[in-house]
Amino acid sequence: MIRRRKVTIDNKNIHFYILGAGPALVMFHPSPHSGELLLPLAKELALDYTVICVDTPGYGKSDALPNKPIDLTNYTAVFHAFFNKLNMEQPVLYGSATGAQIAIRYALDYPNEVSHIFLDNAAHFNDALRARILKHYFPDLTPELSGSHIRKVWEITNKMFQYFPWCFNEEEYALHRPQLPKEALHGIALDFFKAGKDYYVAYETAFKHEKAEYVQELKVPTTIFRWKGSIIKPYIDDLLSFKFPSCVETVSIPESHVERNLEMIKQLRNKTKRLVSYSLPEALNIEPKKEAKAKGVTPKKTLPKVLENGSHFIEAWELLKRYNPELNAVELQDLMIEWFSKSKN
């Protein structure tokens, strides 16, 4: 059973999903997604672990940090307080992309408080490429009444699996792989909308941290997954070209998603030996209150069907704008998210 819970850290809510029984495994998600993205993998791991899929501050249902972060230590400080609040000692950490960088930083900041870290989609970028990525990768996606930001979101989502980085259209960055199904692209775009205008905050901060030197400083048991199907595999390989301390190992992960999950589950299960079982304190085992509904009304007509060009978002936006002329762009976006989230599209 998947339970949703929230705790308050410095007057800010941190939301997480918890499932399973066994030693504590905390899973950090990629940006701009939320812990919900990792639930399919978490369900498998819940046979061996108490799995916690936490929403990074500013994503999913977690409140944003009070100030724009200077670096990832702003996030690890919150997660350190979060683990203390949960009475959690030496959890296993898994992180993908942004989540991998958070796991690395946490292990560097609190090396005695982690039992093992697993790094998925962790990479190294040289300074010149990182600077170029940071200059172009994060356009302004502030909601606009015109809906112009929706086209930007769909462009990013559509290009993410054609090029990496998505913003570089040169042949050397082409991925040469089939496009994802329109339903998958729809879900990714929806996560961009949910993250709002500050979608880039943890994303950008993690990019700045994507350096081999930080992995070289690790002193905790670490497993780097080299997933053959990753869109950033060349940069994973760049990371693995460096020499690491003996506590760091590399495991090859098959390309297909099914085989990938099976191998990662196998690796994670192998580390449960000699770890202490964890249970959430009863005082924190309380179902969060239902969130307030978005302002405005949705049409009684059928929600626009998901289309390959993303125009269903524009159609929904225009309908909602017509029905709710008093709403501003942020309120309209919240209402659009709610409308699509209730749908099975």
Query: Low-confidence runs (pLDDT<50, min 5 residues)?
Result: none
Structural class: alpha/beta
**Biggest sheet, open or closed, and with what strands and sense?**
9 strands, mixed
Instruction: Supply the number of structural domains.
Output: 2
- What is the number of beta strands? 9
Rounded to the nearest angstrom, the distance between the terminal CA atoms is: 24 Å
Q: What would you say the CATH architecture of the largest domain is?
A: 3-Layer(aba) Sandwich
The helix content is 25-40%
Secondary structure layout:
Layout lengths: L2 E7 L2 E9 L1 E7 L10 H7 L4 E5 L18 H13 L6 E5 L1 H12 L6 E5 L6 H10 L11 H12 L22 H14 L4 H10 L2 H5 L5 E6 L5 H8 L7 E6 L3 H13 L7 E2 L32 H13 L5 H13 L4
Parallel strand pairs: 3-4, 3-5, 5-6, 6-7, 7-8
Antiparallel strand pairs: 1-2, 2-4, 3-9
Helix pairs in contact: 2-3, 3-7, 5-6, 11-12
Question: Can you walk through the features of this model?
Answer:
This protein is of the alpha/beta class and 345 residues long. 38% of the residues lie in helices and 15% in strands. The chain has 2 domains: 3-128 and 202-284, Rossmann fold (3-Layer(aba) Sandwich); 139-198 and 292-341, no CATH class. It has helices spanning 39-45, 73-85, 98-109, 127-136, 148-159, 182-195, 200-209, 212-216, 233-240, 257-269, 311-323, 329-341, and strands spanning 3-9, 12-20, 22-28, 50-54, 92-96, 116-120, 222-227, 248-253, 277-278. Strands 1, 2, 3, 4, 5, 6, 7, 8 and 9 form a 9-stranded mixed sheet that branches. A hairpin with a 2-residue loop joins β1 and β2. α2 (73-85) packs across α3, α3 (98-109) crosses α7 and α11 crosses α12.
